[in-house]
Amino acid sequence: MLAMKHECTLLVTVTGHDRPGVSARLLTTLSVFPVTIVDLEQVVIGNQLVLGALVTVDESVAPGVRRERVFEEVRGAVEKTAIDLGMDVEFSTGSDDRVGAAATDRLHVTLLADPLRPGALGAVASCVARSGANIDRIERLAQYPVTSIELEISGAEPEQLRADLALEAATQSIDIAVQPSGLHRRAKHLVTLDVDSTLIQGEVIDLLAEHAGCTEEIARVTEEAMRGNLDFEESLRRRVALLEGLDASALDAVRDQLVLTPGARTLIRTLKRLGYECAIVSGGFTQITDALVERLDLDYSAANTLEVVDGKLTGGLVGPVVDRKGKALALERFAEEAGVPRDRTVAIGDGANDLDMLQAAGLGIAFNAKPVVREQADTTVNVPYLDTVIFLLGISREEVEAADLME
What's a GO biological-process term for it (predicted)? Predict the structure, then answer.
């Protein structure tokens, strides 16, 4: 770790109507003085510019010079520049104890809300303050389909802050993700998605039941499983048995009925552009998931296979069942094949059958999930847009749109 330095600094903050050349004029003004830039931030909100420059005296250029004198001269010159630009300027002196320090304790806190109200963001900021941490930066990642804001935070104990913010998220009806800062957020990842009610809308078994005329019977077995009276494999085998005799052409009809979750194409397209590996793991059937692999250009998949003999479903399955444990094993297998460390994997799912997979991943995301899944996942997304997952990875809506325009 780099040693801490205690630097005497001058913060110059220029505000006013944005137009080309403001930052250039400020930096040109500063360039004639023996100062170095410690930090620089610029943001435009509603055509109003906020530009901040944190500077310190460069003693290698002006050894023995009095800092107070340099800062006084800087103030005078910048004030004249601000007047010429028709802008306001403020100054403050202090010391920056973090100059030169390694940012090993930094966290990114990402908020998703529709809409994002001031009270909710204020509650999050208060929660961070109570933890003794500091918000160093706030950035907007998206305005639609939801509002996404990212906070860069230092000085927090990660697990405690994650727990505190999870409670605040439930209270404010927003989604919050807490992740360590660093290059790994944009390093090559593997993203693995559940299929039914995650990548696609609805459940494939229910669509097949409609064709087989056994919707009510399958619904009863599903309800029994949800009450905990059946494990996943037994539930699946009983439901598949009800499909015995169904013509295999029904599989083609169901493939045509599939409706992707809003934002699914954008999510996959963007991740692939960034070099991510994309996979699906399903308790459903390869006769359906294989079509999704081709349709979305996915890299890996795992699912169960319906037995078909003489053009009819036999009511049985071929091979081992992909159940809750099997989903986690599939994620681990995909990660090994892709050469991606497991802590750089992301899993997205909605049901209890996804829990092992979510917990095996570096980041487990509960997408419009059942309560038991929301409680145990790393973070939750409770809006109906799958591409909001992009924001949790630090990718902004503007970056997505810019990449789309380049195609």
Answer: L-serine biosynthetic process
Active site residue 299: no
Catalytic residue among 18, 164, 175, 194: 194
Hey, what CATH topology would domain 107-181 get?
A: Alpha-Beta Plaits (3.30.70)
Supply φ then ψ for residue 277, to 5 degrees.
Answer: -90, 135
* Residue 99 confidence (pLDDT) above 50: no
pLDDT at position 1, please?
Answer: 38
Q: Which CATH class is domain 7-96?
A: alpha beta
- DSSP symbols for 135-182: EEEEEEEESSSSEEEEEEEES--HHHHHHHHHHHHHHHT-EEEEEE-S
Q: What percent of the chain has pLDDT over 70?
A: 92
Q: Is 354 a catalytic residue?
A: no
Supply the pTM of this predicted model: 0.80
Q: Which of 18, 175, 196, 378 is catalytic?
A: 196
Q: Do the first three CATH levels of 7-96 and 107-181 match, i.e. the same topology? A: yes
How many Cα atoms are found within 13 Å in the side-chain-facing hemisphere of 72? 5
Rounded Cα gap, residues 326 and 342, in angstroms: 16
Q: Per residue in 288-329, pLDDT tens? A: 999 999 999 999 999 999 999 999 999 999 999 999 999 999
Backbone angles phi and psi of 143, in degrees to 5: -105, -20
